[in-house]
Design goal:
The chain is mainly alpha-helical. Helix content is about 80%, strand content about 0%. It has one domain (about 20-145). The chain has helices spanning about 5-15, 20-50, 55-75, 75-85, 85-90, 90-105, 110-145. It is extended, with a radius of gyration of 21 Å.
């Protein structure tokens, strides 16, 4: 059966469930904000303990990545993601989940061909483009005398 574009759009609208947009946005905002508040609490605690600001910022990022990876390994982060949607994906813990989840899922294929390959399938492009962007920004800063 062939559809015109308009008929197809109407067909898809009829078959697609309506999304509770307001509730989803509230959940995403709440959980994403809570994750950020945990990060702020960790950073403020480290600063309060006398750690230098740069070091505290680095330790905060490392702590959030670690927490995200552990929660992924325990299967908890998947539940958080189902509940919060993009609110769980946007903070740094979402990156940790994106790297750790394929590694956990494919561990039965072996340490190298399963875990490592799947882990770097997600992390590889992020690392490559992050390094390339850093180099580009550095060159621009040097050329324009800001560095």
């Amino acid at each position: 059966m062939e559809y015109t574009q308009k008929e197809y759009i109407e067909y898809v609208k009829g078959k697609s469930p309506n999304s509770p947009l307001g509730k989803n946005m509230l959940r995403a905002f709440g959980v994403g904000g809570l994750i950020c508040c945990v990060g702020q609490l960790v950073g403020d605690s480290l600063l309060g303990a006398g750690m230098a600001e740069d070091t505290a910022a680095a330790f905060t990022s490392i702590s959030l990545v670690f927490i995200g990876a552990v929660l992924t390994g325990l299967g908890v982060y998947d539940d958080i993601g189902r509940f919060a949607g993009a609110g769980a994906l946007v903070p740094i813990t979402g990156f940790a989940n994106a790297v750790a989840a394929p590694a956990v899922e494919f561990k039965s294929e072996g340490l190298i061909t399963g875990t490592a390959v799947k882990m770097f399938t997600i992390a590889g492009p992020v690392i490559v483009y992050g390094v390339a962007a850093s180099v580009l920004y550095g060159v621009v800063l040097v050329l324009f005398g800001a560095g």
